Amino acid sequence: MCDTCGCNLTPGNRHLAFKPVAPGTTAVSVLKGLLAKNDDQATHNRAHFDRRGILAVNLMSSPGSGKTALLEATLTALKDEFTCAVIEGDLETENDAERIRALGVRAHQIVTGTACHLDAHLVHDALHQIDLDGVDILFIENVGNLVCPASFDLGQHLNVTLLSVTEGDDKPAKYPVMFRAADAMLLTKTDLLAVLDDFDPDKAEAHLRELANPAPVMRLSARKALGMEAWLAWLRSELAAQRARVKNGQTRRPAIQPDGQQLHRARA
Amino acid sequence: MHELAVAQALVEQVESVIRQHRAQSASLIRVRIGPLSGVVAELLANAFPLAAAGSRMEHAVLDLVAAPITVRCETCGAQTEAAMNRLVCGACGDWHTRITSGDELVLESVELETAPTLAPNS
Fold first, then answer.
1. Which residues of A touch B10 (CB under 8 A)?
2. Spatial distance between the Cα atoms of A134 and A244, rounded to a whole number of angstroms
């Protein structure tokens, strides 16, 4: 985040900007986001994407909700339309990157070891390992985890959060930090709804709205090719929006920091 | 959990404040945390001594100030408190709200031990 534009000041902390000085010590007001270093790196990553006109999309969900399957179906569907690239994050194995490469799409695997989330520095290092020439959309598949990834800006423009119907429809209420950060929520594996009697898609959407999140909710099954068209249309319109922003020298932060979004214009 | 990563970022920031002000050490570090930041105060408090070990803030008091969750309604304009997973307007119930407090994770202030005062001549 920045130290100059005052975006760290909120109505909640503004009154604390000046502190009385105790004898023998100096009180220094800082008012800097704790993750400022990560956010600086994320801003750098985003500028890198914007310079190349790339739309960067961060996919988050619990493990096993179908992020890689969604990517496989999406990349196949968009093959003749756009050039895509993928950064995969997992604790171990190259498995997911290999699945993507099998489709003829550029992929780089970040192996985090024990880290439960990607951060902007890991993504920056990955960007040096992957050829971004001619890329229209970069997908970043975060570590499967509904907690930690939500707190780290990677430099993406959009957060897409997946919720598979084999989980619970109250997941947005249980993991509010994650679902509040979503720019789109995808209900995945909807072909299984026929055999599940305890997942109500409308309830899942209502829980998302209770987080004051207006994000579109799309219901799809990547494996059975159901509902994919709405998702692909959303990606197309977001890529068009990104190109328009780049043209106007603007950028977009993901929903993690909705207030900062208005204050951060790309500086030419 | 990611609180250790956050604690390490905190230590780096306080270290740079100490350096900028040419101080000896930090005696008090005040951090404001909202529940919607995704960082748990108790876990951060546990991680801090690990991250601060051997640094110029290892004896500092870490004061974690809990920020309440408040939202402003875009429909009726009311500012009300809200629960973490129910960020709707407390007055009219509409979900078109904006968070005004509760998602922050901010190093608010640091108290520094400045250069030791010269011992009075006896």
1. 34
2. 17
